[in-house]
Amino acid sequence: MAEITVTAEREYKVRITGDWRGDLSPFATKRSRVAVIYSATMASSMPNFSFGSAEVVTLEVPDGEAGKSSTVINYLWNKLGEKGFTRSDLIVAIGGGTVTDLAGFAAASWLRGIDWVAIPTTLAGMVDASVGGKTGINSPYGKNLIGAFHSPISVIIDPSWLSTLSDRDFTAGLAEVIKCGFIDDAQILEIIEGKDVAAIRSNGALVVNLIERSVATKAKVVSADFKESELREILNYGHTFGHAIERVSDYSIRHGEAVSIGMVFVAELAASRGLITEQVLRSHREILKAVGLPTSLANIAGSTNWDALYSAIALDKKSRGNSIRFVVLNDIGVCDRIEGVTEEELKATYERVLQ
Ligand code: GLY
């Protein structure tokens, strides 16, 4: 269907395809060993893998953020050691963003880096996690605090996986698509505007168009700033507050749901400083609400604990020393950063997204 090139650490293609198995095969044959790492929910969809004479090791990992732990990465390292994985062997990650983050980190850390291929099966994984080479696991102190930049050698996106998703998971993935609309590609917002999730999901061509556009945004940004010296931070729009919500709710809500509230939060912050108009602020709530994403903290476990939220915000990877940084918009498609935001200002913003 489409092929988008990323140049970040290495050049690789993101293929949007109708045949993930056929597209994977050339990367896996001619290897001595291939580890296929997939999440428990994908187990029943896994075929019998065979790649020429390669020894295939299939490794199931827990679903969701629970998989991104030191226990699970240790299990993977032990399996790679037991099977004698060398620098010319391959890891294949099949699953949502948590699986590509985890398996990518196994590839990044084993022998200081071996090849891996990402096969995302969720919308969030397709448009965000699998592209750009961010790999890692969580720490008890916060999300994604342990990790490495290690690009895959290929990303294979087969939209037919999306039929396995619940409406809730599909909708959560739309948060990352809408984020690309706010930070870069306003046409994404025009395409989604006025549509609910059913109207989007039932239109396969529209879904592929949204995936292509979001991947194009991501590819452009990570190709210009692979290691997030500055530009790549824009991909974290809404994520500073979003990650904090995920942490205080003990990861009981989807990443995309937290990012949705995080985008409203940061739009409120920008509006209160006069950086964006009331109309841009309103468009955040309207477009996110229309697809069924949360725009306030109502009913989010742990979210009434401001102190816990504030500590989680302060640990964000964009913070420098004691200065908390936020990616904000000056307009749709125009990103900026603000620094030195006080706790008082943050708390006042928090109060505007409580209900
Ligand atoms: N998910 C944000 C990034 O890849 O930079």
Describe the fold and architecture.
- There is one protein chain.
- The protein is α/β, with parallel strands linked by helices and 355 residues long.
- It folds into 2 domains: 2-161, 3-Layer(aba) Sandwich (Rossmann fold); 167-352, Dehydroquinate synthase-like, alpha domain (Up-down Bundle), CATH 1.20.1090.
- Helices cover 43% and strands 19% of the residues.
- It has helices at 20-28, 70-82, 97-109, 123-129, 167-183, 186-192, 197-201, 204-224, 239-248, 255-272, 278-290, 306-314, 343-352, and strands at residues 2-8, 10-16, 33-39, 55-61, 90-95, 115-120, 134-139, 142-149, 154-157, 326-331, 334-338.
- It is globular and about 60 Å long.
- The N and C termini lie far apart (43 Å).
- The model has no long low-confidence stretch (mean pLDDT 95).
- The structure holds glycine (GLY).
- The site of glycine has 6 residues, from loops.
Shape: globular
Ligand identities:
glycine
Number of individual domains: 2
CATH architecture assignment of the largest domain: Up-down Bundle
Strand order of the largest sheet: 1-2-9-6-5-3-4
Number of strands: 11
* Radius of gyration (Å): 20 Å
The CATH superfamily of the largest domain appears as Dehydroquinate synthase-like - alpha domain
Which range best describes the helical content: under 10%, 10-25%, 25-40%, 40-55%, 55-70% or over 70%?
40-55%
Pfam families: DHQ_synthase (PF01761), DHQS_C (PF24621)
Enzyme class: lyase
Subcellular location: Cytoplasm
GO molecular function: 3-dehydroquinate synthase activity; metal ion binding; nucleotide binding
